């Protein structure tokens, strides 16, 4: 009989799972009202920081939720029926002013994938992008595997 077992992931396992690039769901809140949206990221395992390029359209709801520093959670997950893995990164989301962009930050952003699609009939040219870092992070990870018993 098959059984599912869930275990905590080590920091090395979480770093390997997160890799240098990926996608997840970022959640922020205004008082008790949560707001979540999909993002792509670049991840610096050594510094334990995520780099995100967030797109804003005119009147974007995101602007109502993003104060500085903004407490945030990023959930990254994957499953294939036999196994599942997830990591939750909890920290502060801060905008990096363009004047403070360094070659290292740009390199991290190069790892993130910008979605190649239009949002609500608006092209990417109509979006304003802000560069953000999720820092002061606490990582928690779980993995579940099916074990034949």
Which structural category do the helix and sheet elements fall into? mainly beta
Which topology does CATH recognise?
A: Pnp Oxidase, Chain A
Question: What does the overall shape look like?
Answer: globular
Per CATH, which architecture? Answer: Roll
- What is the CATH class name? Mainly Beta
Give the helix level as a range of percent.
10-25%
Number of continuous helical runs? 2
Note poorly predicted spans.
115-120
Question: How many strands, what sense, and barrel or not for the largest sheet?
Answer: 6 strands, antiparallel, barrel
Distance between the termini: 5 Å
Number of E strands = 7
What does this structure look like?
This protein has 149 residues and is mainly beta. It has a single domain (2-148), classed as Pnp Oxidase, Chain A (Roll). It has 2 helices and 7 strands, in the order βαβββββαβ. A 6-stranded antiparallel β-barrel has the order 2-3-4-7-6-5. It is globular, with a radius of gyration of 17 Å. Residues 115-120 have low confidence and may be disordered.
Précis, in short:
This protein is mostly beta strands and 149 residues long. The protein is 11% helix and 54% strand.
Keywords:
single chain, 2 helices, globular, mainly beta, 149 residues
List the helices and strands and how they pair.
Elements: E1 2-8, H1 11-18, E2 21-30, E3 33-44, E4 49-56, E5 70-79, E6 83-95, H2 103-111, E7 128-148
Antiparallel strand pairs: 1-7, 2-3, 2-5, 3-4, 4-7, 5-6, 6-7
